[in-house]
Write a structure and sequence with these properties.
Blueprint: H1 2-14, E1 31-32, H2 35-42, E2 48-53, H3 58-74, E3 80-84, H4 91-96, E4 101-102, E5 104-108, E6 117-118, H5 126-134, E7 141-144, H6 150-156, E8 164-169, H7 176-184, E9 190-195, H8 200-204, E10 216-220, E11 228-229, H9 236-248, H10 253-264, H11 272-291, H12 296-304, H13 311-314, H14 336-358, E12 399-400
Parallel strand pairs: 1-3, 2-3, 7-9, 8-9
Antiparallel strand pairs: 2-5, 4-12, 5-6, 8-10, 10-11
Helix pairs in contact: 3-5, 9-10
Length: 439
């Protein structure tokens, strides 16, 4: 019996796994799935990306570092997984998913409720995977272009049987986090976004202009035109907890204030794992800025112009909109926090008023692009959002499932699987013309 146990232990130790075989980096945020994990991954109404691979597949080995970089850029907004189809317990799952060659990468736009899409682009780079996944999140966010259009939207949606959430952001695009929340809470909370140029719309609505990196989230109870301003952290898990509390209650103003009070008390205390992920994400941004230009002179010029510097303004740290939350300040009597907040509000409003008075009115808020506002959910946006060091294009050739040899086969790729109609052809970008103003 002991002999058999030793043999089993040795066999398990020698069995090739994705990590020990060197397919995925040791610190990769890509999570391996078995059949049970696969069902759990598709249970939430969220977008996720899953790669079906085999340890002996040379194409999989070359793709894995790029896939891991894409996963880091998408983390935690779009979960990224992989399935080892060479594992006996996963073979039925891979067959059910129509896997005919390795690697096969699929996007599940909304859990089990929307048919998956198969990645069929010629380039298997981190940026290509990132673009492909992030731009295929089902669009459930209404874009409001003018400040004057906000109140009509609020009044029009009072007849809905669900609360509404409005994001005021200074970023040119709808943040990825807000798109993810729109998809996650589709049919439960009505989400909208408005570009708050230099805080002008905030001032128009009676709020302070606010800092560049601080968006505002306004919640409107069912049937009400009066907003409750969210006071918590603009992070995926924090906003999800708050939204869940709103949905669990009757979404009255009283319920919102209670949930808001709980959200406001949260301190941002990331653990070492989250901090390491943030450091890696920042390193990717820096690497991208250098690798996205033809020579060092161009790179230095780009740094001077601030290209890539607004990565965390747009996508945040670890799925957070804006800058890291500041520590709550308290003075004697416990009144420091309110005092500090009041002082910051007064300064910000004075600064905003001065800017609004002195500045010439800017061009209209992208109204000319209104007809195409939602097209970027299916096709490539005008300005890509690279997230990793650009790399040379990888061959899109896949290894057929039937080829079980450990050496890399050179067999041609099997016929491509049908891709959902929503997956549109994306334009190709060379290394020299890829913008890096946003990661």
């Amino acid at each position: 019996m002991m002999f058999d146990l030793q043999l089993l232990t040795l066999a398990l130790a020698l069995t090739p796994s994705l990590v020990s075989a060197g397919i995925f980096p040791k610190d990769s945020v890509v999570k391996m799935l078995d059949p049970k994990g696969f069902k759990q991954a598709l249970k939430p109404n969220q977008t996720s990306m899953i790669a079906f691979v085999a340890p002996w597949c040379g194409h999989c080995q070359r793709m894995a570092p790029e896939y891991s970089k894409a996963a880091l850029g998408l983390y935690p907004l779009i979960p990224t997984y992989a399935v080892n189809c060479d594992d006996e317990k996963n073979k039925r799952l891979c067959a059910e998913q129509g896997v005919q060659g390795f690697p096969t990468v699929k996007l599940f736009p909304r859990g089990k409720t929307v048919p998956p899409m198969t990645y069929d682009q010629p380039e298997r780079s981190a940026s290509a995977f990132f673009y492909w996944a992030s731009r295929r999140i089902p669009n459930a966010v209404t874009k409001i272009y003018r400040a004057e259009e906000i109140q009509p939207w609020v009044e029009k949606t009072t007849s809905l049987d669900r609360p509404r959430a409005l994001l005021l952001t200074k970023d040119k695009k709808v943040p990825l986090l807000w798109k993810v929340l729109g998809n996650k809470y589709q049919g439960q909370i009505e989400l909208a976004s408005h570009r708050d140029r230099k805080g002008k719309s905030s001032v128009f609505m009676g709020y302070e202009a606010g800092e560049k990196k601080v968006p505002k989230v306004l919640i409107y109870p069912i049937g009400s035109t009066k907003a409750v301003r969210y006071e918590g952290i603009n992070k995926l898990d924090s906003l999800s907890t708050f939204f869940d509390s709103v949905i669990d209650g009757t979404a009255t103003a009283s319920d919102l204030l209670t949930a808001n009070s709980q959200a406001a008390s949260e301190e941002y205390t990331p653990d070492e794992t989250e901090l390491e992920i943030e450091r890696q994400q920042e390193a990717q941004r820096i690497a991208l800025a250098h690798g996205g230009f033809a020579d060092l002179i161009d790179f230095e010029e780009a740094v001077k112009k601030g290209h890539g510097a607004d990565f965390h303004d747009t996508h945040g740290y670890g799925g957070m909109m804006g800058d890291l939350p500041k520590k709550k300040k308290m003075t004697e009597g416990g009144e420091g926090e309110a005092k500090d907040k009041a002082e910051e509000t007064a300064k910000a409003k004075a600064k905003a008023d001065a800017e609004v008075e002195a500045e010439d009115e800017e061009d209209e808020d992208e109204v000319q692009f209104g007809a195409d506002a939602d097209a970027d959910q299916v096709v490539m946006e005008a300005t890509p959002e690279p997230i990793a060091t650009p790399s040379s294009s990888s061959s899109a050739e896949s290894v057929p499932v039937e080829t079980q040899a450990k050496a890399e086969p050179e067999a041609p790729e099997p016929p491509a699987e049908p891709v959902a109609a929503a997956a549109a052809e994306e334009p190709k970008h060379s290394e020299s013309d890829r913008p890096v103003d946003e990661l």
